[in-house]
Each structure stands twice: as C-alpha cells, then as structure tokens.
From TrEMBL, chain B:
Annotated family: Belongs to the COA8 family.
Keyword match Acetylation: no
Species name: Equus caballus (Horse)
GO annotation, cellular component aspect: mitochondrial inner membrane
GO BP annotation list: intrinsic apoptotic signaling pathway
Protein name: Cytochrome c oxidase assembly factor 8
Record bears the keyword Chaperone: no
Membrane topology value: Peripheral membrane protein
Subcellular location: Mitochondrion inner membrane
Pfam families per record: COA8 (PF10231)
Record's keyword terms, sorted: Membrane, Mitochondrion, Mitochondrion inner membrane, Transit peptide
Length: 444, 205
C-alpha cells in the first residue's frame, strides 16, 4: 500500500522527463533548417566578387579531376530555392566561359546579361563543367558561419549534455530514492533529481569536449555539437562548470554530503577515468558499469543518508545491467572502434565480451533473489521478475552462442525495455514500512 | 591533371609534413613525435585529401566569424576557415595559429589513419578470399565481402598494430585541446577587459 504513491510519482516523473526530452528534440530539429536557409539567402547575395570567380575557376579544375578519379556521379543540386540555384549556376557559367576579370561588385543587371549570353553557348563539356562547379558551389553552401545564435542554444546544449541519457540517469536515481525505506520527502526528491541531472549534464559535456576528433569519425556520434562547430570548446567547458558547481552544491547542501560526494566522484570517474581509458584498455567497460551504477545509489543515500545493503543491491543491479546492454551495442560497432582506436572487448576479446554479457544476465536473476533477503522488496519480486530475467538471459545465451549481429541487436533492444520494467516491478514489490526493514533517517 | 598536381604540391609545401616551424607554442617536440608515428602517405592519397578544401573556400567579406565546412572525405574532420580581425592582438594570433596547426595535424593523422585502414582492409579481404579460393567478385558481379566474424580478426589486428600510435596521438590531442581552450579563455578575458577599459574611458570623457 505504501508502495503506490511512490510508484505513481516515479511513473509521473518518467512521463514528464520523457515529454521534456521529446519537446527539446523537436525544437532542435525544427528550428535549424529555417535559420540555415535564411542565412544562406543573405550570404549568397554578397558572393559576387572577383576573388570568388577565381576560386571557382580553380575549383573547376580540381573538381573535374576529382570526379573522374573517384567516379562520383554528378548529383542534381537540391532545390533549396529557385532564386539561389539561378544565381549560382549563372556564376558558374560566367566563370567557365568568360575568364576575363569581372569588376566587383557586379550589378544584378550585368550579371543577368552575362547569363543570357552564356546560356546560348551550350555544349557537353560546358554542362559537365557547370555540374562540377555546381558541386563545388554546393560544397561551398555547406560551409557555415561559426556564429552562435541564442535561439539555437537550448537545442545545442541539450545535445551537448546528452539529454536523453541524462534523463535515463535521473530516472534510475529516482528509482533508487523511491525504493529506499522511510517516508517519501518530495522536496528532497526534487533536489536530488535536479542535482543529479546537472551533474550528469556536466559529465557528458566534458566527455564530448574530450572526444571531438573521435566522434567525427564514428557514424553514431558525428552530429554532435562540438564536432559540427556549433559551439566552441570554451563554451562547452563553461557550460559543464556551470552545471557541475550548482549540481554538486545542491546535492551537498540541499540533500546530504554523502550524495554530493558520490556525485563528484561519479563525474570524476566518468570524465577522467572512463573517457581516457576507452582508448587504453578494455577495463573501461567495468569502470563505465560503475559509473552507471552510482546514480541509483545516490538516490538511495539521498533518501536514507547512509550507504547500506539496499544501496549496494541497487548499484549491483545497474552494474550488472550495463554489460548485456553495452556489450551487445558494441558488437555492431567493431569496425568503427577498430578504426578509431577504441579498446573494446568486442574487438579485442570477442569471446570474453559475450561471456561477460551472459554472466551478468544470470547475475540479475541472483540479484533479484537477494532483494527480499535484504528487505528491499517482498518475496513476490523474484517471482514476478523471473519471466523477464529469464528472457534476457535466454537472449544473452543466444548472443553467446551465435555471436552475430542479429542476436546482439535483440539483446540490446531487450535491455532497453528490461531495465525500466525491472525497476517498476521492484517498486511495486517494495517492502512496506514496518516489514522489519532498517529505517534510515532522511536527511535534508 | 598537371594543374591539379601543381596546386596540391603547393598546398603540401605550405602546410608541410613537419610542423616545427617554430610557430607551435608549447610543443617543441612536435616534429619528433610526428615523425615517430607518421606513415608515409602515397602521392595518390595526398592528392585526394590534403587540405585543399580549406584553401579553396572564401567567406563573404562582411563576415567576421570563423567558418566551418563539411566533413573532409578522408579524415571526416570539418575544416575551419579562421577569421583574422584587423586589430588582432598577439594573444589572438597565437590562438589562431595554434588552432590552425592543430587542425592540420589532426587532418594528417586521421586522413592517414582512415586511408591505411581502408587499404589494409582491402588487402585482408583479398588475401582471405584467395585463401578460400574465391574470386574477388561474386557471381552477381558485386564485390565479394567477408562476413563480420571473419572481419573481426582484421579489426583486432589493426587495433593492436596501431595501439602505440594512438597512445601518442591521445596524449598530444589532450594537450592541444587543453591549450586551445585555455587560450580561448584568455582571449575572452582580454576582450572583456578591453571593453571595460573602453567603457571607463567613455564615462571619464
């Protein structure tokens, strides 16, 4: 009975967080194309200079040769706007034929007159050249000014801080808080979530700051803000500091010092241990699993003020979950990891990778049995969680045996729904107060 | 084609395969470590990739910002065209040169890395197909490939072969990244300080 307000509050929370994430993502996606078009319309009007024509001339030569060598089919230019297209092809044709200098800035009238003359001089080589130069100007259009627009900032910062991952981390923290014994303290709960969220944003931003050239080379990460030059490294570091300091302060003084210390430790572990270790040794996966295990422990310590067996159990569950999740994901990224220089089990020790994933799937069954023993949940929990635990173990076994992309994907996607469901079941089976559990004092 | 070669030779000469011009602040050992892990790129490889993109681009005159381009085909890194303001302070110049040099260094490393990977992958596939007794093309006429499990041996071997190279690269990348960010901070503070001084002068006058 006492479990239901907790379940409801964590469900509401997950829903709210998910809604925010969706909103942020949509905004980021919708705003950028409009700004992009507007910017290019303005810029293109100013591009008629002598320098530009000379550059086009050089581009023609190199682009033609490049296209011959690489056997790239000339693609039709995207229809961004008829006005833009006309101007750029007009410039191109003017350059190819009229190699006399054109005085800057050319008046629109004389430009149009040139265009008309040149259109009459059609031949196959001209068309090919203009397509090639068209490709060149198309490439030119992809150059963007590194000017920060304030409206874009929320979307950019959301991506910098890996807001979706942060939301997941915050929800595991909320699960830890809700599962802890003692009365549910709403202000403390909200402060914990805010503090943990800020700490996670900071850690993720620093991680991206360190990994710019590596992220550029992997398909999964090549659209990150620092890679695309949407913000400067200085801004990324400043943002991280502005998240870390209030986040940790909130946890230390708003919740309790233990939670604050765990927050600082986790930021350090993620940015200074896990991130560099990814390129040095496969031990990074174990360190990363600890990083994932700490947030629910933080939730627990925020509610109870101490690190007791229940906290370690929750940490252990998240720790074990990381392995099937990450090992299955990394199985499909082996080529990118190898090329980028990442030391991952899936590349260097594939058999170990699969063995560890299976081992930890089975460990989850063990941990769910330990939950009632440690008075975190009732005995209903191991029973009702057995089906999903057996299923993920089965997929883990298939991955171990088959070692192919199909089984790795199945295991990965299973892990995505397995964790929230597992935690939810834990919440519904939470040991009610007076059930012999140790009541820690909620600190504020 | 001769025009192309001429253009690219100029580019290569300017940017150089060694960066110890003396313009690298705080990195006196740039040349040494660079040579210790740099593998010679073939002429052909250089022709496709090296730095031609940045030198060709020209931003509009009115703009006083840096410009960033599409990802390079070989290195996957986005080239940046740095804006040089009229009243550039020595600190700003130092920062810009550091960023420029780091960009070239990064470009070299990753273009080399990716091309080597592609080349060695092709060689591995050819040798394995030969060992299996299969031709380079399947019956459908498409290029024959190996499955992921067969490729796994190559990935493991490639990673371990390049481990030392990556260690050097990582160390230097971290150093450069910190230095650039540090100088960016200094430049930002300098700008704020100048603005405040200007405001003070105006209020006095």
């Amino acid at each position: 009975m006492a479990a239901s307000p907790h379940t409801l509050s964590s469900r509401l929370l997950t829903g709210w967080v998910g809604g925010c994430v969706w909103y942020l993502e949509r905004r980021a996606m919708q705003e950028s194309p409009h700004k992009f078009m507007h910017l290019f319309r303005n810029i293109n009007k100013q591009w008629i200079t002598f320098q530009h024509f000379n550059f086009l001339k050089r581009m023609y030569v190199t682009q033609l040769n490049r296209s011959l060598n690489q056997q790239v089919k000339p693609k039709p230019e995207p229809v961004t706007s008829p006005f833009l297209e006309k101007i750029s092809s007009g410039q191109a044709k003017a350059e190819v034929h009229e190699l006399r200098p054109i005085s800057p800035p050319s008046l629109p009238l004389s430009r149009k007159a040139n265009e008309k003359e040149l259109i009459e001089l059609e031949s196959a080589s001209v068309i090919e050249a203009s397509i090639d130069v068209g490709n060149a100007t198309k490439e030119e259009k992809q150059w963007k000014e590194m000017k920060l627009h304030v409206d874009d900032l929320p979307g950019i910062l959301a991506r910098l801080s890996k807001i979706k991952l942060t939301a997941l981390v915050v929800s595991t923290t909320s699960a830890g808080f809700a599962l802890a014994p003692g009365p549910f303290d709403w202000p403390c709960f909200l402060l914990t979530l805010l503090g943990t969220g800020l700490a996670s944003c900071a850690a993720n931003s620093i991680n991206q700051f360190f990994e710019v050239p590596f992220d550029s080379n992997m398909n999964r990460t090549k659209n990150r803000p620092l890679v695309r030059g949407q913000i400067s490294p200085l801004l990324a570091v400043s943002f991280a500091t502005c998240c870390a300091l209030p986040g940790v302060a909130l946890l230390t003084w708003g919740v309790n010092p233990l939670t604050g210390a765990l927050g600082v430790f986790n930021i350090f572990l993620y940015t200074c241990c896990y991130t560099p270790l990814k390129r040095i040794s496969i031990a990074n996966t174990w360190v990363g699993a600890v990083v994932g295990a700490i947030p629910p422990v933080m939730g627990w310590t925020a509610a109870t003020g101490c690190l007791d067996a229940g906290a370690f159990l929750l940490g252990g569950i998240l720790y074990s979950w990381q392995f099937p999740h990450f090992n299955a994901l990394s199985w499909g990224l082996r080529e990118d990891y190898s090329r980028g220089g990442y030391c991952m089990m899936s590349v260097t020790h594939p058999a170990l990778c699969r063995r560890v994933a299976l081992r930890h799937c089975l460990a989850l069954i063990g941990l769910s049995t330990a939950a009632p023993i440690l008075d975190v949940t009732t005995w209903t929990f191991p029973v009702i969680s057995l089906p999903i635990n057996l299923y993920i173990s089965y997929l883990g076994f298939r991955f171990y045996r088959d070692a192919d992309r199909k089984s790795s994907r199945k295991l990965f996607f299973c892990s995505l729904w397995h964790l929230p469901l597992f935690l939810l079941l834990m919440l519904t089976c939470k040991q009610p107060p007076g059930g012999g559990s140790d009541k820690g004092e909620p600190q504020s | 084609l001769s025009l192309l070669k001429g253009l690219l030779q100029v580019n290569v000469g300017d940017q150089g395969l060694h960066f110890n011009h003396g313009s690298s602040p705080g990195f006196p050992d740039a040349g040494v470590f660079f040579q210790s892990y740099f593998i010679q790129l073939s002429n052909q490889a250089l022709q496709f990739c090296f730095g031609a993109q940045v030198s060709r681009f020209c931003p509009p005159r009115k703009s006083c910002y840096d410009w960033i381009g599409p990802p390079d085909k070989c290195s996957n890194l986005r080239p940046v065209h740095f804006y040089i303001p009229e009243n550039e302070s020595p600190l700003e110049q130092k920062l810009r040169e550091l960023r420029q040099e780091t960009q070239e260094w990064n470009q070299q490393f990753w273009a080399n890395q990716n091309l080597t990977f592609r080349k060695e992958k092709e060689e591995f596939i050819h040798s394995r197909l030969k060992a299996k007794g299969l031709g380079l093309r399947a019956e459908s006429g498409q290029k024959a490939t190996l499955n992921a499990e067969e490729m796994a041996d190559f990935y493991k071997e490639f990673l371990s072969k390049n481990f030392q190279k990556h260690m050097y690269y990582n160390r230097d990348w971290y150093k450069r990244n910190f230095a650039i960010t540090y100088f960016m901070g200094k430049v930002a503070l300098e700008k704020i300080w100048n603005k405040l001084r200007l405001k003070q002068k105006k209020t006095i006058n």
